[in-house]
Write a structure and sequence with these properties.
about 120 residues; mainly beta; 2 domains; two-stranded antiparallel ribbon; elongated
Length: about 120
Amino acid sequence: MSARPPLTARAPQTARTRVCPHCKSTILESANVCPGCRHHLKFDPVAAQRQAETRTALRIDGTIRGASPAVPCEFSVVVAIRDSEGREAGRHVVGVGAMGPGEERGFTLAVEITPTRLGVK
């Protein structure tokens, strides 16, 4: 009969999620810092090393203005994630708002990649 690991030892898996206790965003379980509110969540030297290896794979900055300076308009910020075959894996409304005449809004989209260390806790 093979020995089973204790129940407290969980095998790490990629893409496990949890809820940030500060902002209630769904974040990766491995995160030391919430990417949404930037609050520190835990201290783990191994995870801190992984976080240091994080790189920004994509960053887009942009500004929008209303179509006409005399007419107010509304906007929706939508992020869609697709797999390698082009199928939509997720679609989320990130935010909505309105702009008055002459106003503008700036946006930044960033995709950060952190290496995983499967089998290392």
